[in-house]
Amino acid sequence: MIHSVSIENYRSARKVAFELGQLNLVFGANGAGKSNIYNALRLIHSAAEGRIAARLADEGGIQKAMWAGDTKVGEIRRVMLSVDTDDFSYELQLGYPDRIPYPTFFKLDPVVKEENLWLAGFGRRPSSMVMKRRNQTVFLTNVEGEKITYPASLYENESVFGQIGEPHRYPDASSAREFIRNWRFYHEFAISGGSPLRVPQVGYRSPVLSSDGANLAAAFRTIEEVGNAELLREILAKAFPQCTFEVTLSDGRFLMQMYRQGLRRPLEAAEMSDGTLRFLCLAVALLSPRPPAFIALNEPENSLHQDMLPALAMLIAEASRETQIWLTSHSTVLAKLIKAHVGFSLFELSIDDGASDIVQID
């Protein structure tokens, strides 16, 4: 479980820190920084996947991700991301490259300046540190408990997590990496016309829904065969009265279909509304047979009719019994409906002079 998060100099998050519960709801006006905190968490996940540079490139590069407001004279400007969990504390510091003595097109690549990992229960003390990185020099604690210099050369724009060549030799670092890599993020699904999930797809057993929802039919069928199919059907019946859903198989290709009372034939995924497909993706993502330690959802109520919010609230509440959830939303109605099922930590984001501030309300 994640206990606390600290973010500095990332977009509007000049200096933000908060403690998490099992289920966390975040509210705030447009532009208050909800998506920035969501993306900061996603950047930590990208570090574990070895994709820091790619993630920041998607955002326009580190020059766009770095806090753009005023700083103190002489202050070193770095993005600093930190998490405390049951088993470890992890800190990542990103900055601009130092002066490069040769011609290059990559002068604005992000550079990992510092990266540290401590075992939980002892505080962030040198004795509990199992990974210490300064630029491209790394000290790791190996399987024998010895602190050694990592022998391989490192890419300066990627985390140690993405470059450990012998994970069995560094169990503490490898365990932390796998914990973070297991986080899942769902923001937008590929539900527009021509989307892959609207046409038959070659299917394979899928206990995890992809971030874009492209394997929806296979993941839905996986739940039916090895997951909580009864709960899935109950939630879908609440969201879509007089409708049932199933996956058809033809020549190895999977396709979602919806049967609606009064219609003589099922509706295929290509005929379903955006809201219907979005809810199906959310249901399959949150009822995964392989529940992750942490899921971040960004405004899941988008494109959904208000009549579907009770089912969405039930879905989120049920998923939070197995998985820690970070949920950003604009819907106070959804919050009230969730509270009827389960308690949660409520946060409010505001912005002052370009900087986000987060306050726990409940």
Strand content: 25-35%
Morphology: globular
Please, what is the average pLDDT? 92
Estimate nothing, just give the exact number of structural domains. 2
Radius of gyration: 22 Å
Secondary-structure element pattern, one letter each: EEEHHHEEEEEEHEEHHEEEHEHEHEE
Q: What are the segments in which pLDDT stays under 50 over at least 5 consecutive residues? A: none
Instruction: Name the structural class.
Output: alpha+beta
Assembly state of the chains shown:
single chain
The major pleated sheet works out as: 8 strands, antiparallel
Could you tell me the number of beta strands? 18
Helix content: 25-40%
Q: If strands are numbered along the chain, what order do they take across the biggest sheet? A: 2-1-4-5-6-7-8-9
Number of helices: 9
Terminal-residue CA separation: 19 Å
